[in-house]
Each structure stands twice: as structure tokens, then as C-alpha cells.
Amino acid sequence: MAKTSDSWGSRMGLILAMAGNAVGLGNFLRFPVQAVQNGGGAFIIPYLVCFLLMGIPLLFIEWSSGRYGGKFGNHSTPYIFDSMVKGPILKYIGVFGIFTNLAIVAYYAYIESWTLSYVYHSIVGTFGGMSQGEVAGFFNSYVDVAQSTTGIPYEAIVFYVLCLSLNTYILSKGLGGVEKVAKIGMPLLILFGVFLAIRGYTLGTTGASDLFPDANAWDGLNFLWTPQYDTLLNPKVWLAAAGQIFFTLSVGMGTIHCYASYVNSKDDIALNAVSAGFMNGFVEVVLGSAIVIPIAAGYLGLDWVINNAGFGMAFQTMPYLFQQWGPILAAVAGVMWFGLLFFAGITSSLAMGTPWIGFMRDEFGWGQKKGAWSFGALALLMGLPTVFFYQEGVFDDYDYWGGTVSLVVFAFFEVILFAWIFGMEKGWKEINTGADIKIPLVYKFIIKFVTPVLLGWVFLASIPSMVDNILHKDTYNSTSFADEYYAEKFDGKGTSIGTVEEVKPQEVKFSFEN
Ligand code: PHE
Ligand code: NA
């Protein structure tokens, strides 16, 4: 293992980088859709329970394992596990923590590149005067890479390569680069998010559009926040909640290990872990739920939102709704919304690059530059199928296997390793070393018993949907970013399938339907 001098510049930088790692597209695109698809208020309780019983424990485990491995100069999960317990099997399990990131970044950076392109189109006013159908059609022709109806030939590829290059370049600068992006991106993200959320909260309770006189932004918020106890026994809702918690906190993938491995062995991790976790939660439940859902409900009505909830809302509906605010405000809102998504995305995709770089250093002594560029090349290689075969559902496969199943499996190994092999006594001591807060003792019990049992249950209960997935029955849902998205109603050639004005409210379903 090569000696590294790289480390975080300041505690603030570390927390922002960790928060940037967690706060991502998951907060703004995945969470609202998961919540709506799983019954709104019915989702929130399992979500919070999973946060406390799996999310927080895994944050403690990953931060402390990472810092522990860092003491031995290790920066990737295989080597970090190896420093905790000697044994080749564990080391191989750790390799998961590297490849998961490559699978996720392949499609994640693709979405990120859309946000970049949409910032551009918001500025130049591409969406001005477009009908809802045309805005939706624009996106559709955008992802159909062979078309050039958006103005730039192969635009999707151009922005994808641009976006990956940017990531690679920043990564080649080491932790300092990551920290700088987080210091600029996170405050802007919060600022933009607060603006848009205020708009979401104040859009009003009387129909904001003539199209849907009953449209009401508060219907959306009430739907999300009114607890519904009757669905608490539905396992599907619990699985969706657990999956969202993993994805959103970035646990079960090795990025937190890697970031934490650069923390000084005497510095706090307990308070840092909790702060980053809560910051992510704030951005998700306060900001993430206050933008897409209420704004869409404010113009199109809650029924529309429930029937059409899908990840495409962000790209196919929002630019159209912003147009209702006049050209200038529409441009500002577009830049804020897609800019926010871009910052959320890049601070996370940078995190996904670090485990690979750390591993190449641990294993082969590669330097930062070589690590970064090889990561960029691999991400491109793995990402091209998502770009070219987007419509064939490759995207879904990556998200399902890379972004959902692997996280649960990996997290399960982690907690067993930490609590049962490394040992809970030692583990608890590690978590509390240098701690700036007093962690309730009950967490010792939770980490040892509750978290592994819950994780095991989540895994077992997901087996049927995995089998379905392998058999391509496509009955899994509520796990994927994109599964609800691709619309057969589109003809794939960018032809508008009609506008809101042309169809009756109940029929406004341009997309998101299987
Ligand atoms: N937590 C990020 C989000 O919510 C996603 C992510 C996955 C980040 C894997 C890092 C590693 O969007
Ligand atoms: Na997140």
C-alpha cells in the first residue's frame, strides 16, 4: 500500500463532502416518486424507522470502519475489511464496494449530464412556448441518441462525455477538488432548493391553472404527510423505504468508507456521521418533497401526480410548469432546478469514483491521476450501454442490481463483519473514539441485533422480486429510478403525443405508465 498524504482540509470540508456524497439525485428525484408510489403518508413512517434502525447504524459502522482502515493506510473496502479481520473471503466481499459504484455511476452520471444540458436549454429558452406534450417529447428525442431534434447532434452523448470528463478532472485533483466542489455546490443547492420549495409551499390552494381548477399544491403536501397507519403491515412499503434509505444515505457501497479513511484516527466520527445523515434527511424530506410534488399538484392536480408519479416528471413536466411563470422566471427556475440537480449529482458521482481510485492505490500503488482517468474510462465504458440502449431498459437493470440489490447484500455483510467478527465491544469503542456526542447505549444493541435481522429480512423478502427480475417479468417496481418512466405511448421519434390542452384531465398520461 502506498503512503498517502492526502487528507481533508477541514472539518467543514469533510462534512460538506460527506453531505454532498449523500445528498444526490436520490433526494429530489427518487424520494418523491417512492413516497407517492407507496402511498404518501404511508411511506413516511417505515422510512423514518428504517432511517433510525438501519441508516444511522450503518453510518456509524461505515464511518468507523473507514477511519479504522485509514490508520493502516487503506482507502478501499477490500483493504479496510482486511485491516479489521484477516481473511481472504472478506477481502473479496469488499470488492463489491468498488464495482457497485461503477454500476451506479454508469447511469447516475448519465442523468447528471441531462441536468447539465437542461440548465443550458433553460438559459437559451428552448422550452419557451412549448406545450406539455412538446416538453415531454423533447426529452424523449433527447434520450433517443440518434436524433438531433434538440439542435445538437448526438447531444446526449456530448453532454455525457462532458460530464464524465468534468468528474474525472476534479477527481484527478484529489480530495481537495472534491472538497472544493462540495463547498460551492452544497450551499448553492440549499439556496436553490429553499427558493423552489418556498414556491412549492406558496403555490396556493386554489387551482393555479385553468386546466385543472381543482389543482392544489397543498393536496400534494397533505398526501405526503398525512400518516396512514393501515399500510404499515405491507412489506412492499417497507422494502421500498429500506431501499430508499440505503440509496439516499449512500450506505452499502463503500464511498463512506473511503471518505472516512481520510479522517484522522483521533477525530470525531460520531457527530459527523449523524450531522451528514440528518443534513441528507433534511434535504430529502423538507426540500425534496416540497418541489416536484406540490408544484405538479398545484398545476395538474393530485390525481394527476398519483397517476403519473415517475422520475420523468423532473424533466418532462417541470420545464413546462415553469413556463407558467413567464419567460424570465421560467429561465431562473429552470437554472435553479436543474442546477440544483447538477450539484446534487456531481457531489455524489465524485464520491462514487473514490473507492476505485483508493483500491488502485491500495492494490497497485497507483497515483491520483492514473486512478481518476482509469475510473473515467471505465465509467464511460460501462455507461455507454445505458446511453445507447436506454430504451431497452438497461438503465433499470443497472439501478436494480447496482443501486438496490447490491446495497442490501453488501450492508448485510458489513454489519455482520463489524458486530460479529470484528466484535461489538471493539466496534463500539471505535465508534466512540474521539466522539463529540454521547451515542445512546441502545445503539450498541441495535447494531448487534436489530440491524442485521432487519437487513436479513429485507433481503429475504426481496428474493421473489429478484427472481421475477431475472425472469424478466418486470414485476419489480418501486425500486428503480426509471422503471415507471419509459412510456410506450411515445413513438420514440420525438413526436408529441398531444398536449395537456388537447386531452381531458383524466387522460393526461403522457408517460410513466407501464
Ligand atoms: N446518495 C446518493 C443520492 O441520494 C446516491 C449515491 C449512491 C451516492 C452511491 C454515492 C454512492 O443520490
Ligand atoms: Na441522498
Automatic annotation (TrEMBL):
Keywords: Membrane, Transmembrane, Transmembrane helix, Transport
One Pfam family of this chain: SNF
Coiled coil: none
SUPFAM superfamilies with a match to the protein in the record: SNF-like (SSF161070)
Localization of this protein: Membrane
Membrane topology of the entry: Multi-pass membrane protein
Bilayer-spanning residue ranges: 12-29, 41-61, 89-110, 152-172, 184-202, 237-260, 281-302, 328-351, 372-391, 403-424, 445-467
PROSITE patterns found in the cross-reference section: NA_NEUROTRAN_SYMP_3
PANTHER family found in the cross-reference section: TRANSPORTER (PTHR42948:SF1)
NCBIfam families: Na_transp (NF037979)
Protein name: Sodium-dependent transporter
Organism (species): Sediminicola arcticus
